[in-house]
Each structure stands twice: as structure tokens, then as C-alpha cells.
Amino acid sequence: MPAVQTQPGLVRAVQTQPGLVRAVLLLAALAAAVLLFARPPPVWRARALAYAPADLCESRLKPANANLTHPVRAAFVVLARNSELHTLRASIRQLEDQFNARHRYPYVFLNDEPFTAEFKQAMEWATTGDCHFGFVPYEHWSMPPWVDRPRALWAMRAMGATVPYGGSESYRKMCRFESGFFYRHPLLDEYDYYWRVEPGVEFTCAIPYDPFKYLADTGKLYGFAISLREFPATVRTLWATTNAFRAAYPEYIAANNTLRWLTTPGGEYNMCHFWSNMEIASLAFFRSPEYEAYFDFLDRAGGFFLERWGDAPVHSLAVAMFLRKSQVHFFDIGYHHPPFQNCPTDPEFNARHCFCNQNRSAIHNSDSCTRAWLELGPSNA
Ligand SMILES: Nc1nc2c(ncn2[C@@H]2O[C@H](COP(=O)(O)OP(=O)(O)OP(=O)(O)O)[C@@H](O)[C@H]2O)c(=O)[nH]1
Ligand SMILES: *[C@@H]1O[C@H](CO)[C@@H](O)[C@H](O)[C@H]1NC(C)=O
Ligand SMILES: *[C@@H]1O[C@H](CO)[C@@H](O)[C@H](O)[C@H]1NC(C)=O
Ligand SMILES: *[C@@H]1O[C@H](CO)[C@@H](O)[C@H](O)[C@H]1NC(C)=O
Ligand SMILES: [Mg+2]
User: Fold this and answer.
1) Is residue 350 part of a domain?
2) FRET partner for 137 with CA separation of 20 to 30 A, picked from 7, 114, 177, 237?
């Protein structure tokens, strides 16, 4: 009669070990409370929802590349619309001629809408590297649910035509995606470095070395070609929010950081930023706990929509907080994203390998912050 025996056994356990039972009941109650009330914070909830349906991610591998090994796990990352096929094709042909035909690094194309068959075929033909086409899920391309939508729409209308894309919601989604999500796309999982390429840019000189390998060999984490000053109206509270982040996470701020590059003598933001449409950088930098904490902090503040925070100042403020000067590299390559360009300074290199005019280089523009970057003295932080 085992059933009869276990009943008194249980009763005896309750009588002799009331502490244990109380602990079990308390744990059960706690578990119920957690399940019922403690929903994850919005950022994590949004991230948990994110997915990239398998049928919207496609890899087109070139048989000739089957046995190719690269010195660095790296890829070009191109966010583009189907309608940008032709301007992108022109940019990629130049990139291939000036650099990639000799290296055959792969490409990752991303879009918030499915790529058309025509787009995929054109990119496959324009490139020497393997092509991967990825879909950006809604959760990574949207105004998050915790942003006050009427207030955001009002802010967009108010900014309107006073600054480029001031009234555009899709531009804001793009900036948020490029700030906090591109590096989380599953198609990037197998890479350590990326090079951002946009439709319509030009590569005006041969690139006779491998920038990815250069970063890896030197232990540098971020590279840029052009720096500029941001439109103040787009980042009204970005600096205050960044200061709040620094106060909340002092352990994340590098001892020898480069914040002095982008602050005024009065301690305000001087609007300097690396122009992020061309960056060659480490993905580990973006995937780091400090970068992710910074992005989440900004995302919760809502400024991507309540103002028009660009991914360029966001990346730059992160670089300035988390990296030393020696971890950042100025790639003096021939690069043109209208209306600004970088044209290499060395006259002999320029004459032999370029079709740009050094006099037109953004480094001569008073809005460029590149000279200030190069002349930045040692940190006294
Ligand atoms: N798929 C997709 N890509 C977009 C969208 N908006 C912008 N992009 C891409 O995001 C990048 C930045 O957008 P751009 O329009 O070039 O913005 P910008 O560089 O600040 O400004 P301009 O180049 O002067 O227009 C480019 O690679 C675009 O192709 C969009 O709605 N959907
Ligand atoms: C790749 O390597 C395999 C095994 O060595 C070989 O059979 C194949 O022909 C190679 N493919 C190419 C494209 O070189
Ligand atoms: C910061 O820079 C100083 C001077 O170059 C150096 O002595 C110190 O070790 C650096 N600190 C860190 C944490 O890199
Ligand atoms: C660049 O500017 C200098 C000084 O004004 C001038 O002498 C030179 O011819 C210019 N170069 C080109 C390629 O226009
Ligand atoms: Mg652009």
C-alpha cells in the first residue's frame, strides 16, 4: 500500500520541516509573480520579437570563390532600396575596380523590404565577392512602442525642411537601424569587420592595400575618411543624454578616451562626427557591452524620433567615449559621397592612382574635424 504510506510521509515532512515547505511556497509565489508582472523591459521585448525569416535571407555564392580564404573575416555592408540599384551598381563597380577585384571580399545587402530578383542579379554580376541578401525585421526598422508617437510626429513637422530629412520618418528609422541594429543581423554573424558602402558613392583612387587587414594587424577598431559637423537642430539633447549615460555607467568610459575631440572649451558638444556613410570598423566594437548599453540608453530616450539623431554622431560619441586615439584610423582614401569627398594628400600617390582633385578634399573645409582629430594631443583624462 505505497499510496497510503507516502501521504503520512508528506505530512510528516510538513510537520518536521516547515522551513523547507515555506521556502518552496515562497519560490512558487515568486515564480508566479515574475511570470505575471515582470515583463522584460521594452528594449529586450522588442529585440526578442526580432527575427529574419529564412526565406528572406539569401546567399548567392560564386563557385570560383569556394576555396578562397581571406586574412580577415570581413564584408561590405550595404543598406539599400531596390530603387537604388543603378546608383549602387556604379559605386560597386568602382569599389571592385579600385580594390575588391583583387580580394573578393563578400557583400551583405540589407533592406527593410525584400530585394527584387532584378536587384539580386545585378549585384551578383557587379561583384566578385559572394553576395548575401538580408531582410531587416520590423522591430529593427520602426519607431519603438515606448516613443510618444504624436510628439514624434509633431517634432518631425516642426523640423520639416529646416534640415535635410527633417520631416522624414523613414530616415529616422534608417538612423536608428544604423545606430543599433545593423551589426546584429544574422548575416553578419560570421564577420569581425565591415565596410559600409552606400549607393551613389565613388571610390576615386586605387586602394593598394587591405584596410580590413590593416585594422586587424594594428588592433584598431574604427576607421573613417571624412568628418564634419552635425546640424545642431537634429541633436538638441543628444549630448545631455550622453552625459546622463556617462554618469550612469562610469565604468564604461575609457580612461584615455577622445571626448576632448568633440567638446567645446565650455564642455558642450561641438558637433564633430565621423561621417558614417564610409566607415571600416570592427563589429566587436559595436557588439561590446558598453556600445549596446549606450545604444539602449539612447533608444529609450527616444531622440531618434523625438529629434533626428543621426547614426554618425551616435557612432562618433561612442568612439570618443570608449576608444583611445590609437584605436581609430583616418583612411586617407579617395572617397566621394556628394557633396563631400576625401582625396589623398600625397601628391605622388594622387597623381599615380587617383582621379580626384586634392583641393576639393573636405579636409580643407572649415566644417571638417579631421585636422583637429589628427592634431589631437595625448589624453589627460
Ligand atoms: N532599404 C532602405 N534603405 C534606406 C532607406 N533610407 C535610407 N536607406 C539607405 O541608408 C543609407 C543612408 O541613406 P541616405 O539617403 O544615403 O542618407 P544620407 O547619406 O544621410 O543622405 P544622402 O546620401 O545625401 O541622401 C543609404 O545606404 C540608403 O540606401 C530606406 O527607407 N530603405
Ligand atoms: C576547391 O578545393 C577542392 C578540394 O581541394 C577541389 O576539388 C575544387 O576543385 C576546388 N575548387 C575550386 C573552384 O578551385
Ligand atoms: C593612459 O595614458 C597614459 C599616458 O600615455 C598611460 O600612462 C596610461 O597607462 C593610459 N591608461 C590606460 C588605461 O590606457
Ligand atoms: C590646387 O590649388 C593650388 C593652389 O591654389 C593650385 O596651384 C593647384 O593648381 C590646384 N590643383 C588643382 C589640381 O587644381
Ligand atoms: Mg548617403
Assistant:
1) yes
2) 237
Model-level pTM greater than 0.85? yes
Is residue 1 domain-resident?
no
Instruction: Tell me whether residue 7 is in a domain.
Output: no
Element (H, E) at 342: strand 340-342
Q: Let me know how many helices (H) and strands (E) the chain has, helices first.
A: 15, 13
Residues with CB under 6 A from ligand 1: 79-81, 84, 111-112, 170, 174, 198-199, 277
Give, in order, the Cα–Cα distances in Å from 43 to each of 143, 244, 297: 12, 18, 10
Grid coordinates given for 224? 573613417
Which of 198, 235, 341 to probe ligand 1 with, by most ligand atoms within 8 A of CB?
198
3-state SS assignment for residue 2: helix
Farthest CA pair distance, the chain: 99
pLDDT digits (tens, 9 = 90+) for 286-324: 999 999 999 999 999 999 999 999 999 999 999 999 999
Give the active site residue among 190, 279, 290, 307. 279
* CATH number of the domain within which 110 lies: 3.90.550.10
Nearest to 222 by CA among 277, 178, 282, 272: 282
Indicate the top mutation candidate among 61, 65, 67 to test ligand 2's pocket, ranked by most ligand atoms within 8 A of CB: 67
Cβ-contact 112, 182 below 8 angstroms:
no
Residue 32 lies in a domain: no
Question: What is the grid cell recorded at 325?
Answer: 586615439
